[in-house]
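Researcher: Quick one. two chains, 229 residues in total.
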Amino acid sequence: GQQLNQSPQSMFIQEGEDVSMNCTSSSIFNTWLWYKQDPGEGPVLLIALYKAGELTSNGRLTAQFGITRKDSFLNISASIPSDVGIYFCAGVHTGNQFYFGTGTSLTVIP
Amino acid sequence: NAGVTQTPKFQVLKTGQSMTLQCAQDMNHNSMYWYRQDPGMGLRLIYYSASEGTTDKGEVPNGYNVSRLNKREFSLRLESAAPSQTSVYFCASSERLTGGMNVAKNIQYFGAGTRLSVL
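Model:
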């Protein structure tokens, strides 16, 4: 099955730093989604992007739908300890099939 | 607002045992899904149900069966568990599976997961 390439695989950052992660695919997607998974919990939707070039914010989180429709980016500004978790991207294909990235594990050092 | 509820949260099985993972959603969603999550593999779709009364195979269906009992409930059954089925299982639901202009209706909401170990 198709997997999205998510990078970096893991990040260790100092509290207060900004974070950037991205997701790329060889296929075009109609929708990009970003989820966060806390330890021991299921993924929770953070941001949904519906149009190429779209830039959407949710508090300290900002995500962009790449112009080529083959990639997406998530930025977290001024990280805090509760940002710790695994961040997943998901792409919705033309046939409305969901494909998930392999995740970016974020550790925030106080 | 419970959302998607999975039971049990943890389970340990011996090879060859059977069990059923339960999932229920209270959002009146039409579509439901079962995924497994393994380290470094992300989420992989096992089975999905586009609507009540229908089920279809996903990426990794072998060794599993599903039942869409009603609109709310979607169960996953392991008939003869194998160590390779040790994983974290997630159920998800969305308003609908495909089609339409409002893609927001396709967004999936996840349960908290079932952690399964097969010895």
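The longest strand of chain B covers residues 31-38.
Researcher: Thanks, that's what I needed.
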